[in-house]
Design a protein that fits this description.
heterodimer, A: mainly alpha, MetI-like fold, 31 helices, globular, B: alpha+beta, Rossmann fold, OB fold (Dihydrolipoamide Acetyltransferase, E2P), 2 domains, six-stranded mixed beta sheet, 8 helices
Chain lengths: 700, 355
Amino acid sequence: MRDSLRRSAVVWSLVGGAGLVLLPWYATSDGVPAGKVQLLVPGLALLAALALRNLPARLGRQTLGFRLMVLGAGGFIYIAAQAVAVGGQPGLGPGAAVVATSLLMLFAIGLAARGFFRGDVFVAGAVVIVAALVALFTFYPVARILVSAIQGSDGAPSLRALDERLFAPKIWRLDCLTGGRGCGVGWNTLLLAVLTATTTTTLGLAFALIVTRTGFRAKRLLRVLTVLPIITPPFVIGLGLILIFGRSGLVNQLIEWAFAVPPSRWIYGLPGVWLAQTFAFTPVAFLVLIGVVEGVSPSLEEASQTLRADRWQTFSLISLPLMRPGLANAFLVGFIESIADFGNPIVLGGNFGVLSTEVFFSIVGAQLDQGRAAALGVLLLALALAAFVVQRRVVGRKVYTAISGKGDSGRAAPLPPLVRRLAFGMALPWAMLTLTIYAMALAGGFVETWGRDYTPTLRHYAKAFSIEWGAMGLVWSGSAWRSFWTTLELASMAAPLTAALGILTAYLLVRQRFVGRAAFEFATMLSFAIPGTVIGVSYILAFNVPPVELTGTAVILIVCFVFRNMPVGLRAGMAAMSQIDASLDEASRTLGGKSFVTLRRVILPLLRPAVVAALVYSFVRAMTTVSAVIFLVSADYDMATTYIIHRVLNGDYGVAIAYSSVLIVLMLGAIGLIQLLVGERRLRRATPAPVPLPTEAASA
Amino acid sequence: MTGPRAARIELSHVTKRYGPVTAVRDVSFTIDAGSLVTLLGPSGCGKTTTLRLIAGLETVTSGRILIGDDDVTALGATDRNVSMVFQSYALFPHMSVLENVAYGPRVGGRPRRRAAEAAREALAGVGLAELGGRLPSELSGGQQQRVAIARALVLEPRVLLFDEPLSNLDARLRRQMREEIRALQQRLGITVVYVTHDQEEALGVSDRIIVMNHAVIAQEGQPRDLYESPDDVFVAGFMGEANRVKGVLQRLDDRTGRVTIGGITRTLPHRGLPDGAVDVAIRPEAILIVSDHVEDGALRGTVSQAAYLGSRMEYAIVSEIGELFVTSPAVTAPLAPGAPVRLTLAAHGITLIRP
């Protein structure tokens, strides 16, 4: 035991030493060498750690651990402080990264030696490294955005600047009530979020009731419908709505032709964004609520029926109250999705601005006001975090529905006729409308100009995806190829990292108990509540300048994907892992399997479906995300979604629609693949529906 | 009979807290090498936590744990050379029976062939030599139990731990497995710690029993001692049924005293209690229903309920010293509710208990 600890310490000291000597300390192309001061202290720390190999055994593990902790933490803090404090240095490079990592590992080994993490080096190292990554790529940028929000135009902290930005009339004016101009973006955001959350929860409940409590034949079709929004770039529904309800959309043209009513622009603004968000997020509510409805124990409904209650009484007095926490959760999930949404408001918003689009326009538009963008971002962040905290309370409080594995037999009560009719009456037209929108979005790419000239054409596809034979062989001459290949490349690099980090974090959260676990868990979950636009702005603010200079590189996009999409891997991993009895790990440990061996030989094989799902979903989401990415793309690294958004903003709908269709078909292929590989049941589990933490359910 | 590998276990002042909850409070005991000791108690008493502390699956909040001569307090489960049979058996569902049993040797670094060899031997030891190729899900409960034991034994551990090993088996199989576990332990001479909440199981299998309640040891001793002279009301009630009645003690010498219960007098160990009113625990089978002629001060009573349980009758009897629970082997001549009876006390199965 002691030997294995010392061996790890030696290995990491050597790794750090190699990084120090062999890799460039700074990330510059012209290879600025680091001064002796930068290298001396970390080097000494590593040498001292190496020397601990010879620490006399009588001094014991506590002493060894303490010294390793001091050396690791000291060296790391020195690097960080030096990088921040001394100006004029280039950004830190691979050498600094390796040295910092090995110093953190030495610190972790020290913790393990002192008996933390049950003395397990692998777990200690994983916790320290994951925590450091979350701190660097979530909390550091958020701290930067907070700082920027209170910096005046001259750079000095100024409460007045913050006050002016946070309480500007542009955000909080109420003119729409008195009939003047529109209301402020703050009110717009809140109103939209409440409306969207209400409709998505209602529709989601209707779908959930139909799928679980009726003999409806096309249940599988409804479930397929729920996968669509996950594989769809967020603005496709907006585009489809424009094609149907827009100024030159089908409906307007029909009305104009029949009644000579001039086409209206109602779709651009609150109604359009609301409609689009309802389409986009109803499936999320459905996924939350299907678990809730399934969780209502049939035996309770049977008990109610044997006590002479009729169907309506059983539904309204037993089933519905039992679902209440779940309904509240679905509402809050819809609320959070709505305020974080960027794609739909930017396509359909028109003059109806919300916080997320306002953040975007104040940093890329003519205004270029970083302080204002930061302040708006902080406001958006505060809203999202408040909703997140409330949601955690609702989910964490009494969970009525049983999640235990114990089978509760019995047949669910059939729905009362009224509820049944209502559910079908809402859900079926809605499903039809969704299908229509997708059909339109696909068809739109094959006509000359929607609304004016319906001549079938492949012109848009040719423009985006043409391939020619040139002198040098194949030439990818279409305008979309560049962003297409970049997207594929970055998404396939990010997917394995996302899945690995997600599953590892899930393992730490579900399977390990250690001091600070609750804080670790809260920090990880909290970072998921941060809206994409906030992440985008804060990454620009944090990583545009040394010590960690990443903007304009592929690294920042990959990092963004990994940390934005980690919840997919994390939730898939946590849900799957809590299905695996903890005694399997314990059995492995008593048989001599160290935690890493246990993870690799026992847990991962059992988690294979979740791992595959996490891989494919992080790939898909990296391909379809837009909100954070739009801030981070550069000339060298343009992404498919941002390319499409810019086509839309230029009114070039044909290419945008053609490109979106290609993406959707590609994603359908990916989803189809996973269907074949792991089956539909597992697929559903991995979707980003909030899974109540197993620790809350079983704190025994 | 003590095997060559068997190790003694010593816990000294072990406490385990989870936040504000104390699961195990200042527990100390020693388990001799090669003996089978049961941790017995109601659910939530800390017995499973104690077992997991010995296994290294939990770390102590304070105190020390020794296995053999080694202080293992700071070691994890992986490094303690202790094996455990889990309540759920915890067989790896994605591995065959043979792979399950070979897992320990494999992760310990033995070559595949030697690991498989050891696994086959261990499987043969529990009579499952032919089933190595099956998946755990294709086995019956009893077979799974045996695989779990083979998997635990293949590493030749110094200590073998059982966590409620029989609770997932049906009643008939339970007795059989209990006897097999005991026979195996005797044959191999290993140290076994066994957790159960079933007092009959504990009585049937153990060299010694440690009864736990509310995170502390309530009493520790040989099965017979615990059943016949429980220290307090809890142990008396947990080690089978007990009637608790009032009596009067008068010391005779430094060991025994005369105890008067109703009109009946018996000589019992006084257990250091002072003269005067005392609590007495009486086993249901120690209250004898006697025929009508008056013996030395027999108690009067009336049957209030009667139940026929095949091998014995169970009666609730209202008597001068309170309501009594009585069992009687006389199933051929059952008494009906309302029947008047006379009762006397047997020589065994009566003890003074501390208040």
